[in-house]
Structures are given as structure tokens and as C-alpha cells.
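Ligand: NAP. Inputs:
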Amino acid sequence: MSKPKILVQIDSDEHASLFDAVVGIDSGVDHLIPYASVQVAQVQNLVHGAMFTRGPADLRNTAIFVGGSNVATGERLLEAVSSCFFGPMRVSVMLDANGANTTAAAAVLAAARHLDLAATEALVLAATGPVGQRAARLLAGCGARVRVASRSLPKAEAVCQRLSEQVDNAQVTPCASDSPESTAAALQDVQLVIAAGAAGIELLSPDMLRDASALRVAIDLNAVPPLGIGGADVMDTAKERNGVLHYGAIGVGGTKMKIHKAAVRKLFTANDLVLDAEEVFQVGRELEQA
Ligand SMILES: NC(=O)c1ccc[n+]([C@@H]2O[C@H](COP(=O)([O-])OP(=O)(O)OC[C@H]3O[C@@H](n4cnc5c(N)ncnc54)[C@H](OP(=O)(O)O)[C@@H]3O)[C@@H](O)[C@H]2O)c1
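Predicted complex:
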């Protein structure tokens, strides 16, 4: 008989994410074991507890979910988790700190329903945040030419540098979006825009959208009014407005939830999976093709 599925939730926040716990349970996990306020130095003991308790044949029924609101800390925790594994002594692990991987994957999948990304000029606004950086990374990985926008050009340049190291042949260009004029200029000739700004910040006005004649798909990830794309609705799901298909944060959120659950289920199919941005995106692609 196979062992119960155990998901160990490693979270850097004071309270481990209840959202991630509920999704874990809804994904079919038998036992969820949450650890809060986890620091890198504490990871080894936790991972050893997960990987030395069951024989190699049963390790696929133990998995680790790395969460928490701080994505940079989540990345360090994932690195620490992965460094504990050797030979067959490993369990599958997924990173979705702040929902960044599942959200970016859902946004890029939404775009891919309407556009050939390899032939697309895309603009990611507020591309310096964890969600925006991952969206830009996934788009670049699909062969899109990506304009990486920030209010600060040096910050956009730094993100482009990182993307060039992470993605082979990344076609990324930094651009400033520090005024309505510069944002409108960045929007010219793009077919896709993803607004990945902080909650409650409008990045694009309806006027800017009207002037963007090449635009076909506009995706907003901010669910808190004012929305990131003015004139759109948080529920939009391929809603056409003036010839542009709009997605709002909740419109994208449905796909994000499906990807999150499918990725957790995937963890229990093997004991050697590491699900970061690209792997989570692949889970989403498989869902779309099913
Ligand atoms: N739908 C979902 O399931 C889901 C899940 C997770 C996140 N989200 C949403 O996705 C969005 C991005 O998340 P995140 O965690 O990456 O966001 P974030 O780190 O809070 O902010 C992203 C970027 O927004 C820009 N920004 C911050 N304050 C600003 C201001 N006052 N004016 C203009 N720009 C400002 C900054 O870029 P620059 O400084 O470079 O300009 C920042 O790097 C958020 O709206 C979040 O709520 C949605």
C-alpha cells in the first residue's frame, strides 16, 4: 500500500500561508505540515526529516512547498532545500513564494491563447517585482521580444541582465516608464502588455491604450482598485475592449489556481522534481492541452 502524501510547507513568514495550506489540501495532500518563520540555517534539519524517514521507493509521497511573502527569501530557501539532496535521497519541491510562479505562468498562458509568443513584441510594466520578473522571464523563454519596464531605468537594466543570464538568447530591452509619456512610448508597436504593478496602482490609462494601435492583449495582475489598467475590469477574461482582449487579475486568477493545484499534484509523481517558474509554466501548458 502506498504511503500517505505528506506536504511539508516551508514558509518564511510569521504565519505559514493559510492560502497555500488550503490549496495543498484541496490538491489531495493527506497530511500538510506547516513550518513558519523558517530561515535558511534551519532548512537542513527539516529536509533531513523529510528525506531520511521513508525508503527511496516511498519518497515520492513526501514533497516540500516553499512559500512566504518574500520571493527573494523563498529563492534562498529553495536553494538551501535543493542543496540537501544527494543520489536517490531527495523529495520533490516547488517554489511559489507570494504566488509569483503560478501567477506569472497563468498570465503568460493567457497571452499564449491569442498570440504566437515567439513572434510577439511584449511590454511588461513594473517588471522589477517578483511577478513581473517571472512573467518577463517566461515570455523571453517563449521567444518573445520583451520590453522590461520600470520607473527606474537602472532597475530595468538590472532585471534585463539577470534575464539574459537565466534565459538562452533572451531578447530583452530595458525601458523607463516613469511618466505617462514614457509609458505611452514603451507601449508603441507592442502586441502584448502585462501590467505587474503593486496593488492599487494604475499603470496604464484608457487614453494610453487607445493610442496603442498594435496592441491585441492586455493583462492586469493587480486586483486592488485602482486597477493597473484603467477602464478594465478585475473579472475580465479575454474581454474585448476597443479591439484589445483584456484579462483582469481575477480572470487570470482562475488559471493560477488550477496551475497551483496541478503543480502540487505533480510533486507526488516523482521524488526528484524541482518546480520553479519554467516547470510551473509547463504544468500550465499541459493543463491547457488536456
Ligand atoms: N492574481 C493573483 O493571484 C496574484 C498573485 C500574486 C500577486 N498578484 C498581484 O500581482 C502584482 C505584482 O505582484 P508583485 O508582488 O510582483 O508586486 P510588487 O513587488 O508589490 O510591485 C511590483 C512593482 O510595482 C512597481 N511599483 C511599486 N510601487 C509603485 C508605485 N507607487 N507607482 C508605480 N509603480 C509602483 C515597482 O516597480 P518599479 O519600481 O520598477 O517601477 C515594483 O517592483 C500585484 O498587484 C499583486 O497584488 C496577483
